[in-house]
Amino acid sequence: MKYGFDALVENAVFADDDSARKGYRQEIQKLAFDRGIYPASIQGLYVAAGKGLYRGKTVPAINIRGITYQVARALFKTAKKNKVGAFIFELARSEIDYTAQRPSEYTACVLAAAIKEGFQGPVFLQGDHFQVNLKRYGLEPDKELKALKELTKEAIAAGFYNIDIDASTLVDIEKETLEDQQKENCLITAEMTNLIRKIEPKGITISIGGEIGEVGKSNSTVADLRAFLGGYLHQLTPKTKGISKISVQTGTRHGGTVLPNGSIASVKVDFKTLQDISKAAREEYGLAGAVQHGASTLPDEAFDLFPKSDAIEVHLATGFQNLIYDSSYFPRELLAKINEHLVNKYSGEKNPKDTKEQFLYKTRKKAFGDFKREMWNLPEENINGIIAKLEERFTLLFQKLNMVDTVELVNQFVIPPSPQK
Known about the structure:
Layout: H1 4-14, H2 18-34, E1 37-40, H3 43-50, E2 59-63, H4 68-82, E3 88-92, H5 93-98, H6 103-116, E4 121-131, H7 134-139, H8 141-157, E5 162-166, H9 178-181, H10 183-199, E6 207-211, H11 222-235, E7 245-248, H12 271-285, E8 290-292, H13 305-308, E9 313-316, H14 318-325, H15 332-346, H16 356-363, H17 367-370, H18 372-376, H19 380-400, H20 407-413
Parallel strand pairs: 1-4, 2-3, 2-9, 3-4, 4-5, 5-6, 6-7, 7-8, 8-9
């Protein structure tokens, strides 16, 4: 049985009553503010990058799909040890359902982890891939946009002061000109930007990201960037601050490409494209640079190249999921139970060409929601073993992305909120 603060966090996640969970989450938020821990926008840091005030640092944006409190503790612990000032906690639109985490719960777990580890300062929470579903948009565009807007409002209310809009799903490469290809992407990204600026809290400029190339599709180009930003900026209302960064496609795929035996195929990232787009984004539009998605399963030697290519941000998710599931500390009997469950519940989603190993690899992310309580209550020895490996990985990434000793840099450009009354 858990007592004290850990019990408070568990109640914020698992209490039976909605109002009770809300109360526990508010208590955590108050404790965080009292200790100098606050949700923040990374906008100031990215504006500085756009002005050329610093270079060669890539902010890691990490999606935590399960045992969120414990994994976030590992991240804060490692960041404190390495004096890392900027690292982002992400939750994608698609992840909310299959991980069974709403934004307010995610925020509570992350802030609680910061409290537990004695962290102080800004905490960057980000809505990742707040994406327009192409199929739903094609059938009922108004309904799909309404759902995206409601989620955005919910996330901002929960302290997500960084939002990545992804309307790249609407890019139509069948159109003749790049401008026409990007037209719907421009319109929807601008509409969402205008909404965010209207509802963002007083004194906070939310960092907004756009996307010009859907991950897993054709590589992006500088011409794509110019076509998108030309149309996008034209659609913004007067004096509206636009996006601070741009997500691009350079050859990766979310989760990696799974081979028949369940292993991950090698991928070659086009770092020249990443560098060229980052340069154009900064010099021509004042953006911080380009963002790399789908990178967590890349080989270690690739991560040194992101800061060298001036990538401003890199998104990491599946690699940490793999460290958890593939750890010798993850109970084999629970893993077997999960695999049986996935086959029974999700076999209708299996691609006929996939092997069982490929199916399980692609589907096991959904077990984070289906087995949420079981994973949260893993024996302490198992949790500690898994977390130790995650801490090693976080340390390696902070070093390779050149984010060690960046606390002062962040404090220079990220302004704390006014004291709460």
